Amino acid sequence: MKIAFVVHELNIVKLLKEGADFSSPLEILKASAWQSRPNSTARLTLANVRAIKVLQSSFDIDFVVDTELTEQVKEVLSEFDLIIMNSVASVKSIAFTADLLDWKRQGGFSGKIIVGTEATWSGALKKGEITQEQYDSIYFGDGLLRHTARTDREIYSTSSCTQAAIQEFELAIDEDLFDETAHYDERNLITVVRAPEGRATKNNAGIDAFLSKAKESGLLDRYEIGELRPPYTVRDYWDVLAKSRYLIFTSMGETFSYALNDAKALGVVTFLPRQMYYTTVGRRFSVDSYPDVGIKYTSVDEVVRKIQDIDRVSSRWDSCSRRSKEVVRRKFSLPVITENWAALFSKQSLNCNSLFICAPGEFAGEREITEIAEQLDCSYGMEVYSPSWPSDLDSLSTSRSRTGVTLLRFYLTQLESGALRRLIEVDEGQVNLTARTALGREDMEQTLQFLQLIVRTYKVSKIVYTDGISSMAIAPLLKRLTYFKDIDAGVQSIELVPFIPNSL
């Protein structure tokens, strides 16, 4: 199979044309000749190009950097079986992608086109940069790679989401960062990062609230504050992180955040708002994209208390620092992303997780649910309406380290009277899990949309369901759930397996 890897990020295109050595990316970034400010698209493209260069010894892959689909470029691309279209948020790149899809739809290209992680296609549609037909080709065509569903959340407001050919595909952190970490005694900063004024979701007000509470609590008697304000380079940021014990992140919503994950890769203990990685669909439901990334908080008081608790024993900081690096290495390191590309090119599924789902009250509590899920080799568990959810746990998910199972919270709760309430309340961008909105009845299409988002987010290809589920209205919905199997098979039905208690 011949693969064309189309790159449109200008900094990386320049390096490819110059024949740059991509084996030492930190030298490229440290030079900062082309990077006067943090640029996530350049970072992720750099990591992807490095991964592809590794894989060129095993696969027939060529880089293509043209930004206009001329007849000459069509002639070149027609020789390939698979095109990976790494679009970026520029008019030229979006137009190239749209023209490429039209060319295929009109019979000019017979291979597969997989669209990459960048560009917000719903925004491009609203601006008139692409047509509805082109939009449908992106979402319901050969495949779309995305990192979290935040930029695709509109898809999950209709039940057509079950036919969307979307593959969850993580971004990468430059592996070399793991070698630059400093020891505990070399760090004396608590770091905060301000965004340009006017970007409300970045929540600069949260930084002010934390600094006030840190001063009041006496934290600033022991620490200095490393406060970064734009403009700054990625090198500036890493230099500050090298001296930081803690990073307090205040953004209310991110898809990935190199700022956060660079800090983790450098061993900084990180705090982030509990809702930062939520994908929220209207006022209907939310799903946490990364349940296990960072120490999550709901108030600055909680951050101060947790720092004080960690500081009581220095070994606690060492343990938290190791976990920071470990989660990034496990999920976002270059070898992991290289393996993901290799699996995609080899027509292997990237969705290999299983979900155990049970009826409300079918088991004694969340502990038994997670234990059964573990025995069934399910990475995730869910109880419909979540009556066993711990009352003091204000989150959408919780991981049980003893079993390794992540318990997911259902988007509706049920009172003892049988009345239903919607779990989330959204107020000026703040997602609260208050369960105050009463519902007359469950909208089963919304339940389907919620479950499809769960399946996509957690890379689920199999659901194990109990006998109690079989008698509920949710049962027929499971048969409508799908996942992206591979670049040949495309969208396929989820494997459904009935739970047989005596088989454990």
Question: What attributes does this structure have?
Answer:
single chain, 504 residues, alpha/beta, Rossmann fold, 3 domains, six-stranded mixed beta sheet, five-stranded parallel beta sheet, 26 strands, 35% helix, globular
Overall description:
This protein is α/β, with parallel strands linked by helices and 504 residues long. It is built from 17 helices and 26 strands. The strands form eight sheets. The protein has a six-stranded mixed sheet, sandwiched between helices. It has a five-stranded parallel sheet with strand order 8-7-9-10-13, with helices on both faces. It has a four-stranded parallel sheet with strand order 2-1-3-4, with helices on both faces. The chain is globular.
Q: Would you kindly provide a brief summary of this structure?
A:
By secondary structure, this protein is an alpha/beta fold.
Blueprint (SSEs and pairs):
Blueprint: E1 2-7, H1 10-18, H2 25-31, H3 40-55, E2 60-64, H4 71-77, E3 82-86, H5 91-105, E4 112-115, H6 121-127, H7 132-139, E5 144-146, E6 166-168, E7 189-193, H8 204-217, E8 224-228, H9 234-241, E9 244-248, H10 258-265, E10 269-273, E11 278-281, E12 285-288, E13 295-297, H11 300-311, H12 314-332, H13 334-345, E14 353-358, H14 366-375, E15 380-383, E16 397-400, E17 405-408, E18 412-414, E19 420-422, E20 425-427, E21 430-432, E22 437-439, H15 444-457, E23 460-465, H16 467-470, H17 475-478, E24 482-486, E25 490-493, E26 495-498
Parallel strand pairs: 1-2, 1-3, 3-4, 5-6, 7-8, 7-9, 9-10, 10-13, 14-15, 14-23, 15-17, 23-26
Antiparallel strand pairs: 11-12, 16-17, 18-19, 19-22, 20-21, 24-25
Helix pairs in contact: 3-13, 5-7, 8-11, 10-12, 12-13
